[in-house]
Design a protein that fits this description.
Elements (H helix, E strand, L loop, with lengths): L15 H15 L5 E6 L4 E9 L5 E11 L8 E11 L4 E6 L4 H8 L4
Antiparallel strand pairs: 1-2, 1-5, 2-3, 3-4
Organism: Papaver atlanticum
Pfam families: LSM
Protein name: Sm domain-containing protein
């Protein structure tokens, strides 16, 4: 079963040990660039697109994004889709994050950002 990725935001200090953690976290996020990502938000919609950016607040930008949403409230319900292009998903709205074409162990090792 696929598990959600931890893309928590974190404030990094400018001390020597924090710089090491910061560069490690940056390199982990860089490995995700241009991978296809599925992001679920609180209202039940999903966005699927190429990972483009993650800022310090935890907001995600997806390129060539497609929105998927349920047409009816009954389950299982058909999904409607529409192309959006470049979108920003605020961290406050994000419920889940999944990366395509990678093993769960690799996802967790790349995204287990320390809190």
């Amino acid at each position: 079963m696929e598990q959600p990725l931890d893309l928590s935001s974190r404030t990094l200090e400018s001390s020597g040990s924090s710089n090491i953690h910061e560069s490690t976290n940056v390199s982990r996020v860089r490995k995700l660039l241009f991978h296809r990502m599925l992001v679920g938000i609180n209202d039940g919609r999903f966005f699927y697109g190429a990972f483009h950016c993650l800022d310090k607040q935890g907001n995600i930008i997806l390129q060539d994004a497609v929105e998927y949403r349920s047409i009816r409230s009954s389950s299982p319900s058909p999904m409607e889709q529409r192309s959006l292009g470049l979108i920003l998903i605020p961290s406050s709205c994000r419920k889940s994050c999944h990366i395509d074409n990678e093993a769960i162990e690799e996802q967790l090792s790349q995204l287990s950002l320390e809190k």
